[in-house]
Amino acid sequence: MRRGDRRNATVVDVAERAQVSVATVSRVVNGNYAVRPSTRDRVLEAIDALHYVPNVQARELNLRHSTTIGVVVPSLYNMFFAEVIDGIEATVRQYHYSLIFNCAKNDPQQEVECVRALVSRNVAGIIVISPNTAHIESDFYESVVARTPLVFINNGWQQIHGASYVDNDERAGSRKALEYLMGLGHQRILFVRGVNSDSYTVKEESYRQLMQEKGWLDEQFIVNIGEGNSIDTVEHTADTLQPIIKRLQPTAVFCCNDLMGIGAQNACQRLGLRVPEDISVMGYDNSSLARLVEPKLTTMDQNMHQLGQNAVSLLLDSIKGARSRHITLQNTLVERRSVASCRKSED
Amino acid sequence: MRRGDRRNATVVDVAERAQVSVATVSRVVNGNYAVRPSTRDRVLEAIDALHYVPNVQARELNLRHSTTIGVVVPSLYNMFFAEVIDGIEATVRQYHYSLIFNCAKNDPQQEVECVRALVSRNVAGIIVISPNTAHIESDFYESVVARTPLVFINNGWQQIHGASYVDNDERAGSRKALEYLMGLGHQRILFVRGVNSDSYTVKEESYRQLMQEKGWLDEQFIVNIGEGNSIDTVEHTADTLQPIIKRLQPTAVFCCNDLMGIGAQNACQRLGLRVPEDISVMGYDNSSLARLVEPKLTTMDQNMHQLGQNAVSLLLDSIKGARSRHITLQNTLVERRSVASCRKSED
DNA sequence: CTGTTAGCGCGTTCAG
DNA sequence: CTGAACGCGCTAACAG
Asked: In terms of CATH, what superfamily is A11-62?
């Protein structure tokens, strides 16, 4: 069946067939003004017969307000993002908005392009998840926010005037996690981070500060495994950590996300180390990945779904003209099976 | 900074400032007709000064052709989908199209609503991944395809006239997988499937046929664990399988996707069974999840990225007026660590 | 209750 | 090379 030649029905077609004006058609479609039942039925019949579907694009052009919002995400290979998007999509659809989705492939340059595309699509607002703000000229986002409401999710660092934020307090969260580990007697704690996200840096600061306080800080224990959200992060973390764990003999390893946590667990397994008996591993995010592996990962919950919901609320408020706001969520510890007391301190 | 009151600049504003007509502005923006350099510069200057961004929506309305395509997916909690979407998004963006994304939450009803929303958004075409065709009145998709080009990914079952398809030959793939297991000496093969996707049924047919041929078919060995793409699939599979594996003592378990495969592996672990020494576990998809766990899952590769790319090509062709096509990809075996020869047959 | 009309922002004839 | 005018599909006045 060839198609495309056949023009889709418009209000005019419906109006003709129902012997009414276009205004009446519009009124029955939108149900915002009274229409005599009998003419209403005629219009409905025509709509049905012609398979008429209103053109949202045209309506929005007329109304000068869009009902689609744009989302840009660094990657889909970390369940963390998938879960945030899941929350966003559900909330957006509930408000009868649509979602234009863009993936920046962990690349600041592509992030900028994605946002630009969204702006020219005339979206009502934009949500950027874990932006690479540090690698982007700061006035870029400022020029965006001057035109389109903007919400950042987990942008630990830079503040764009006029944008809204929904963040996790990753500084406090990582501190909580580290204190938990220390409370279990761990001193030799390996810190594992990635690149291209401010959240790693925030966590590293917590780590440095805490370890400094205790006098345990050792630069060797801070390891950067590079890209932290790609398909290869797990494998790469495992490969990188294997020799390091062997050499440094940490009793616990704190990872900046669950992907790295799983990688760390795999490294231990290869080394013949039992988790958590011989070494504890802690993740961050509480993505569904954390429950996939055995032993299930102890981790900090980032409430991805809430993150998404809140971002949409803030954005919708902003679209309605409210001023920008800042929501900070607290991360909670999720104790599972990958962390235990430090053996050496128990002896 | 409050915003929204300030109207964004349009062609008219630019034209005024540059002292030219709107037509000229349009010409320099689209670069499709010659414009004298000096006026061109004036226009460019005005565009810059006014922060003018073309309104794609208006342009498309005028041109009567959209450059956004819609995707609906059952869930994001299976990496399989995330990877297909990744492929789609990359390809779509490369052609300067945008992607409207909808998640049907594994619910046929929501799938219909998502597609409807896409149609009224006036998208140029729609891709539906793993549709629930069996649970949807067949004329729904027929009415959609009469209006909007449509491509299905992995819709093993029903054929909608006029739609394009990119499928994996899961019938042959599952057969290949099962024969591989049998070639390793396995007879007591547990078959694990889910609900709400035709692909499970296709695989079950392969299983039945093959087991029938060998005279090994036993209904008890076919288990349906319910929803196969949710956040709880892994856990639920593990819980369901644990008693069954104990009772039936299979030497291998074949799972319809990697999520279930991981669940099966976890069930074995809880039972104190070593994979693959005591029992083999095989997944399906070769999603990135398969490489996360230890031992890494042996599985059938569904080439998610290619699936996405091909779907976009087919859709774009369709949009240009080409007739519908059908691409079938072959699944290839990916041998990793979760499958071994059957012990009992080696004795 | 209903019809007529203007205009959303844009690109494209068609004349100059 | 440039401008005036039309229309994409729709809704919101404004009249009746």
From this structure: lambda repressor-like DNA-binding domains (1.10.260.40)
